[in-house]
Every structure is written in C-alpha cells, then in structure tokens.
Design brief:
The chain is mostly beta strands and 383 residues long. It contains three helices and 25 strands. A hairpin with a 5-residue loop joins strand 17 and strand 18.
Length: 383
Amino acid sequence: MSTVISRPVFSENQVLSAADVNAIVAHARDSRQRHDRHLHSWGIAYGLMLEAAARSDPSGNYVEVSVSPGVAIDGGGREIVVTESTRVSEDAFDQLNITDSANDPEVHFYPVYLVGRDEQGSAAGRRVSQCLENPSTRVQESYFITFGTLGSAADLDQQVALDADAPAGTRPKPWKILLGYVSWDGVHFAAISTVDAGIGRRYVGARGGEVTGLGDGLALRSAARTVPDKAALVIDNTDGGQMRFGLHDSLGNVVPVFTVNAQGDVIAEGKILGAIAGGVQVESGVVTDGLDVPLPAGITQKQIDDGEATVQITVTPRYQQPASLPTLGASDYWLQQPLECRVDGRRVVCLVRWESTSGVPAALVLPGVCDYVCMGFVKQETP
C-alpha cells in the first residue's frame, strides 16, 4: 500500500509533543519540495557564478576562485542557498586526485559542483531533563562544493530524482549542480570557464501545459527586462491580437522585427529565408562557366533528386571583358560574340568569342560570365 500524505490536526487542551510540532514543519517543507521537484526543473535560480581574482606567488600567477551568493533547486526539490561569497578550496580539489598529469601541456577544465546537505545545528539552550542528552534544536540547510573528473558533467541529466509519492523526509542521493569549470596547473587554479565541451550551467525552468498571461499579454524574455538589446517574444491583444519578436530596450519594450497578427498577416523587417511548400523561392546573381548555379535558400539538391522540389534556371550572357585578353591600341576594342550560354543540370556552360576591331590579335574563345535567375518550387504535400 502506498504511503498516504497526512497533515497534523489539533484539538483543545491537547498536549503537543515534539513530533507534533515537527510534523507541522515537515508537511510544509515536503509540500514545497514536491512543488519544486515536479512543477519546475532543477538548476540555478539566481547568482552562483564562479569568480576569479588574479593572484601570484613564487610559483607564478594563478586565480583565487570563489562562488557568488545565490540560490539553486536540486532534483529533489531542495532549495540550496549560498548567503555569501564562498572560496573554492584548492586543497579539496587536490585531495580528490582527479587531474591528468601535471606535465600535460593541454589545458583541461574540471567541473565544479554545488551539493546541498543538512547539518546538525546548535543544541537546546537548556536541558529538558538531567537524565537526557541535550538535543539539537536546529538543522542547518547547508551545502558543499566538490569537483568532477573530465567529461563527468555530461552525465548530470542521468541523476535520478524522487518519485511523486516518495515518503515525507525521503532524500535523494547527493544532487550535483554545475557551477562552472576550473583549470589546474598542479599547484593552483589557473583559470575558470562557464562552458566546456558544449556543456554549461543549467538554470531552473517551469513545467506545465498552459501559461496564462496577466495584464492582457504575455512576454518571454531571454534576459531581465532592464538589460537592453536582448531577444524577447510578446503575445498580446494589440489591434485584435499580435505576436511580436524583437529586442527589448532598457525599459522592457520590445522593438519588433517580426509580427504576426490574428488575421495571419506577417510583417518582417528582414528577409524571409527557407522554402515554403507550394511557394516559389528565387535566387539570382552572377556565375562563370563550369560552376553550378546556387540553389535558393531552403532548397537542397537532395530535395530535387527525390522529386520533392524542382528548379527553373535562366542564364543570360554578361559583357564582362576577361583580364586575360591582350591589351589593344587606343582606337581598338574587343567585340563579344556569345557562342554558348546554357545549363547542364545546374552546371553552367558559357563560351564567348572575342574579336578585336583591328583583327589583330586573332580571335579568342574563352569561358564566359552570365547572369542567372534560379526559381525553386517545393511540392505541396497531399493531405
């Protein structure tokens, strides 16, 4: 039979035991952790940046690394709070013996993890009985900083969280939250980094099937609204309903570069790239003999080979005198006579006969240059 969650209730003249009072605290704490565990994803909520201060000693230059104050939520829903700047211990790193050879000339970055833990706090101010031990009246919701081997940060998503019906008070195995990376010169930390091998800090998120805006709108921002020139997406009921994407200014106002209204009209400040099924994509430019005509954006040769798209190419000879032609006298010039200007598949065949007005030197046949227009058509899928 699964464990049933219960909360304490009291009656008049009831004598409360320590277990009764602890149950009040435990019920509220477990409820909060279930919320953070299942309605949010784990990660850093605020701060907790690795900071490096330049130092030097007889061994050379190095950095003193510390963690800034901040808050994180681990996979069990535990809130981890770092209340003040905390130095990252070089001794603790060295004792783990996880580094490669100190003689390795390549710079390696080792992950730095934050892990929450409970510690017994101070004892009671007075004994409840001379026959009993003096019990602790506080549990410190503390943390420790540890390190990982090279590449271990790739396994952080494999950590196992608690089930939804885990009994109250159940704690997962120590949950690691990545703060960043440090490099080691054999004596001291040499540098810090926020990303290594494409893996960086993870931030908290939200889980849900629906988000409802307040104030007749909803905004999704990539940074705090007071930080200018950051990407943002806004959905609101302006002019009957709009979705706008752009950068927000220092006041949090989004300057749109892409807008869709409720009627389906699309307004874009820049180019719209990519092939649209049932539409036409156009590419134009200049190409020389022997080269392939470039395809429009969003259309690939594989689509053409698979019959999913077709192209129509038009080429026109361009009068562009090649630098390889000999220099003529002041009163003479070269006459251009296109011999071929076509495409073989997408390959351009363009040959031009050049003849001087004086007849000297003799006529030359050279590769030519042409203007092209390539129209691509993507077939619309049959429903």
